[in-house]
Amino acid sequence: MKKILWATDFSPHAHDAGRQALDCAKCTDRPIDVLTVVAPDELPTFLLDVPDPFIAPAAVHDAERRLEAEHEERVRQELTSETRFLTDAGIQVALHIRVGSPADEIVRTATESASDLIVLGSHGRRSLTELLLGSTVESVTKHAPCPVLVVR
């Protein structure tokens, strides 16, 4: 085993999955890539469809980029805090933040980083879309390029 990918949405099940990823990393002396995925609808946005004659379009664009950078920094801080137990245990950790569909981004990250194992929680923060269209876990297990450990 070369690398472990732990996908987290900061839910209790995801944290339990992180503990299992730690156990796997200790047994195999492998690093852990930690991924969280931000859904596009969670990103801060301006009301771009409502023109404001007092604000130049470039200023709106700059403000939106600043908001996105601030949001990414908050997510990175939360991810750093969530993974502290791994670094405290001496595990080499790489943090990844992606925007998109969680299942697609987990599979893409596992493929790009040549992960040998994906570890994720059985239940996360569920959206209405996920309830209607199927779970992230189901999609990841169907499309993953490597084994998937689902932690309850």
Task: Please provide a written account of the structure.
24% of the residues are buried. The longest helix has 26 residues, at 57-82. With 152 residues, this protein is an alpha/beta fold. Helix 1 (12-28) links the parallel strand 1 (4-7) and strand 2 (32-38). The protein has helices at 12-28, 57-82, 84-88, 102-112, 128-133, 136-143; strands at 4-7, 32-38, 93-99, 117-121, 148-151. Helices cover 48% and strands 18% of the residues. It has a single domain (4-151), classed as HUPs (Rossmann fold), CATH 3.40.50.620. The model has no long low-confidence stretch (mean pLDDT 87). The protein has a five-stranded parallel beta sheet, sandwiched between helices. It is built from six helices and five strands; from the N terminus they run E-H-E-H-H-E-H-E-H-H-E.
Strand content: 15-25%
Number of helices: 6
The CATH class is Alpha Beta
Helix content: 40-55%
Give me the secondary-structure category: alpha/beta
Low-confidence stretches: none
List keywords for this structure.
Rossmann fold; 152 residues; 5-stranded parallel beta sheet; alpha/beta
List the helices and strands and how they pair.
Layout: E1 4-7, H1 12-28, E2 32-38, H2 57-82, H3 84-88, E3 93-99, H4 102-112, E4 117-121, H5 128-133, H6 136-143, E5 148-151
Parallel strand pairs: 1-2, 1-4, 2-3, 4-5
Helix pairs in contact: 4-6
